[in-house]
Amino acid sequence: MKHLLTPRAILLASALAIAPAAYAETPADTLVIAATIDDIISLDPAQTFEFSGNDVNRNTYDRLVDFDPLDMEAGFKPSLAESWEMSEDGMSITFTMREGVTFHSGNPVRAEDAAWSLQRVVKLNKTPAFILTQFGFTPENVEEKITFDGNKLTLNLDKAYAQSFILNCLTAMVASVVDKETVMANAEGEDFGNTWLNTNEAGSGAFELAAWRPNEAVQLIAYEDYWRGASEMKRVVVRNVPESSAQRLLLEQGDIDAARDLTPTDVEALSEAEGIKIQNEPRGRILYMGLNQKDELLSNPAVIEAMKYLVDYEGITNSFLKGMFVTHQSFLPQGYLGELKENPWTYDVEKAKQILADAGIEGGTVTTKIRDLREYIDVAQTLQGAMAEVGLTLEIEQMTGAQVLDAYRAREVPIFLGEWGPDYSDPNTNAATFAYNPDNSDEAKATGLLAWRNAYAVPTEMGEATEAATLEQDSEKRGQMYRDIQKQYQAEAPIIPLFQRIANTGLQENVQNWNTGGAVTSVMYHQVTKGE
Amino acid sequence: MIDTNTGGQGPIPPASAPDRRAARKRRLRSIAGTVLSLALTLLGLLLVTFIIGRVMPIDPVLKVVGDRATQAQYDAAYQAMGLDQPLVVQFFRYLTEVLTGDFGRSISTGQPVIEDIKRVFPATLELATLGTLIGVSIGVPLGVIAAARRGGIIDQVARVVALVGYSMPIFWLGLMGLLLFYGILGWVGGPGRQGIIYDGMVPHVTGMILVDSLIAGDWGAFRDAFSHIILPASLLGYFSLAYISRMTRSFMLEQLSAEYITTGRVKGLSERAVIWRHAFRNISIPLVTVIALSFGSLLEGSVLTEIIFSWPGLGQYITKTLLAGDMNAVLGGTVVVGTCFIGLNLLSDLLYRVLDPRSK
């Protein structure tokens, strides 16, 4: 027995076992994706609020209205709702449901399911519920406010909101329509099936959930009776591959069709590789700098103004953030209604020096906490160097994301560097957190508002303008309102948007119609095809 | 042998009954002692982990409710998680649940901890076992030969191999291995436990894909899984080889300079017999401890190897959940690792008895 385990024998055995294995390309009807998907903690649309969870739900559920992956410019389009109508006073909106659509269980999709799904979100009141409750729904009144009759669904609102605002919110994953009968059959106590839906699925989307193994893989299988027609991809496999170089190797070897988390170095290397293409799309996340107004130095308007000129926008986006971010100095991401295209600030140390000198500021020290993520640390260190040139000292404490977030929510981060991603595809999602803070006192504990976290007392008229913009029915006018708010914001706010994130997906040349959802939604697989 | 002494029946020698009873009592006491020390060790382990987890400046509630939660949602989750109770109450509540087999739910995966562990532990066990096998089968002979031919070429090679193994960052070595054997040569499978085609195709029995595919008789799946595991296992094997070969060498050197070896040689025993039959047999006991410790440390999961090779194992699981303040998961993982170490200790104790005639 002993001589069987000699090194030579083991090597030989390994060679024999490996030799015949062939590594060809992925099957023609299967889409294989490598991504970091370890953030999924729930697949219940009423609870899911993580990127990867939304990526799954986007494909397993439908909503009343949805984006068309082949025509994103058009904005929301009819989906499970065939049409809709606002009441004359604008206080309610009635949807007519599409006929003949079925859930994966085979049950028909009814107005009753849609009503119940939305009511369920409000009653469960998990984190993303605010996207719906901002229309005046509460667990107590929601059954009167959201009603159905035959194939009509009616939402009764507390104000005459802009139609675009309502419909944009209904494209969010939290507004997914779930199969009432299937879910209720699996409910435990008063949980409306939440425990079951956390790991299962009851939708009508293009794909059925075949398996989810946390930190490992998600598998989807095409729903053959899908009302838009069955997807060409019969199987979608998303593998958790945390390491960018591993994703790159898999792509080069043809073992995957798409690599979603590539570092700029790997993107650059792959852009020259044969048979592989790189697709760029702007995502919704804004990297910004928050100056805490509790800090005496940072609350000085001259310092706020000077800081805008101390970020080397061009240098940063051409070096360590290359291909990951583009300069973007307003809080609405590119691709949103009311986006502002101008970037007014450039890197100008002399100008910053002058501003500080005019205000009689000779120096000062700030100690801040920065998340231990390469990008943020690099930006912070560049900023540190620029600040030193104008006599300001920045001391950096590196911490984990959770630690920084804790401190930030407690208003204890003097200079915050981090990202904010929109929660739904309407401009209000960012306006309501950057430019809205009705009560700036510590007691208000408005921990969800970025303005509050930075102790920024948003001027009353700006707060009112933000509220008014949600009620403007004319989309053209509404867009202009947001542009005006952002201009005023750029002039005086201590929260300074710097960059917008870009998604780089490495794809096999034959993959067509790939769409990560851009700035407004999550990834979509239904339209993806694989050519020769 | 069960003692069936019923008092007077059968030809039982009168003196042997009390002896056997005493022996049985000793055995029972020893088992009770082992169980007690096992329970106490686990309890201590849980307590320490629990305290570390609670003093860590990470808020587990935020992980549950997310960044956007309102204060009311935050407070509701805080209460639902029992964090408003004193630490002592929290710990005892946890302990009672664990005793009934309920390790709670992980907040990072949304699934029961026991389910998570059933999934991640076999992945690590499979990898660590193969890694240790590789490490032992090469490391031990290498160490023995290096000692027997001290200063010779094999000794020099072994020294370099061990030095590289100790000093090379596993992250770099792993990536280079992937690049060479997967990227350039195409000899092995890429990151992950299986090729996509076989993903989810092998019925789950033990969770170790190599074993499960053999049980299912699926030779293709076995080959696929083997091609995926061989590189990370070799990498881990290399690191344990470095350690095991150095330890073997120093144990052997100690034995080879002992007087009984000189006596053996003087008596004309062949060099082979001196080394393998006499010296090696005497180092087998400390060697078992070294191997058990090395295996144990691989069972904790090698986080970096797991990350590079996208291996969904225990190491990644514990690290990730620890950083999220997911205490149920961390404690569950700790129990598993602790039990493994204790189990390995017991096993090496048992092996001592087999290997060392004196302990009989």
UniProtKB/TrEMBL annotation, chain A:
Q: Which domain of life is it from?
A: Bacteria
UniProt GO MF annotations = peptide transmembrane transporter activity
Task: Give a yes or no for keyword Signal in this entry.
Answer: yes
Q: Where does the UniProt annotation place the signal sequence?
A: 1-24
Query: Can you say where in the cell this protein is located?
Result: Periplasm
- Please name the InterPro entries in this protein's record: Peptide/Ni-bd, SBP_5, SBP_5_dom
GO aspect biological process, one term: peptide transport
GO-annotated cellular components: ATP-binding cassette (ABC) transporter complex; outer membrane-bounded periplasmic space
> A Pfam family in this protein?
SBP_bac_5
Keywords associated with the record: Signal
Q: Which residues form the Solute-binding protein family domain?
A: 76-440
Q: Which PANTHER family match?
A: ABC TRANSPORTER, PERIPLASMIC OLIGO-PEPTIDE BINDING PROTEIN, PUTATIVE-RELATED, PERIPLASMIC BINDING COMPONENT OF ABC TRANSPORTER
Family of this protein: Belongs to the bacterial solute-binding protein 5 family.
Protein name as it appears in the record = ABC transporter substrate-binding protein
Q: Which organism is it from?
A: Paracoccus alkanivorans
Q: What lineage is this protein's organism placed in?
A: Bacteria, Pseudomonadati, Pseudomonadota, Alphaproteobacteria, Rhodobacterales
UniProtKB/TrEMBL annotation, chain B:
Q: Which GO terms describe its molecular function?
A: dipeptide transmembrane transporter activity
Secretion signal, residue range per the UniProt entry: none
For this protein, the record's Gene3D superfamilies field holds: MetI-like
List, for all copies, the residue spans of the domain called ABC transmembrane type-1.
121-352
Task: List the membrane topology term(s).
Answer: Multi-pass membrane protein
Where on the tree of life does the source sit, at the highest rank? Bacteria
Classification via InterPro entries: BPD_transp_1_N, MetI-like, MetI-like_sf
Q: What does UniProt give as GO cellular component?
A: plasma membrane
* Assigned keywords, A-Z: Cell membrane, Membrane, Transmembrane, Transmembrane helix, Transport
Name the SUPFAM superfamilies on file: MetI-like (SSF161098)
Region of interest (Disordered), residue spans = 1-20
Question: Where found in the cell?
Answer: Cell membrane
| Coiled-coil spans in chain | none
- Chain segments annotated as transmembrane: 30-52, 127-148, 160-185, 225-244, 287-309, 329-352
The principal location of this protein is: membrane
Similarity annotation? Belongs to the binding-protein-dependent transport system permease family.
What is the protein name given in its UniProt record? ABC transporter permease
Q: Which organism is it from?
A: Paracoccus alkanivorans
The root-end lineage is: Bacteria, Pseudomonadati, Pseudomonadota, Alphaproteobacteria, Rhodobacterales
